[in-house]
Amino acid sequence: MPKGNVWNEYMVAYEEMIQHTATPHAPWYVVPADRKWYTRLVVSAAIIHALEELNLRYPTVDAAKRKELKAARAALEHEGDHH
Predict the structure, then answer these.
(1) For the chain, which ranges sit under pLDDT 70?
(2) Is the pTM of this model over 0.70?
């Protein structure tokens, strides 16, 4: 088989694999790797985008939970005091 046909078959298989395994929850990112600075820029942008999409927030803690956490912290801090 001529070399060109093998490459074309490889590219078809590659594209099919990406299309059949990427999901909205776990997408593939195809990143060019011939220039390291550009590769790092693209990867960094993808990571930032993914983190922003998570819409992370610090948890809210009400007064009762805060009191419970304070008591747990005090207990842990004094855990080694009993000899």
Answers:
(1) 1-3, 82-83
(2) no
**Pairwise CA distance, residues 76 & 64, whole Å:** 19
CA distances from 26 to 12, 21, 51, 57 (A): 21, 9, 13, 21
Residues 6+ apart with CB under 8 A from 21: 28
Sign of CA dihedral 19, 20, 25, 30: negative
Residues 21 and 28: beta-carbon distance below 8 Å = yes
Residue at token pair 């956490």: 69
Strand, coil or helix: what is 82?
Answer: coil
Q: Measure CA of the first residue to CA of the last residue in the chain; give whole Å.
A: 79
Quote the distance between the C-alpha of residue 73 and its chain's center.
31
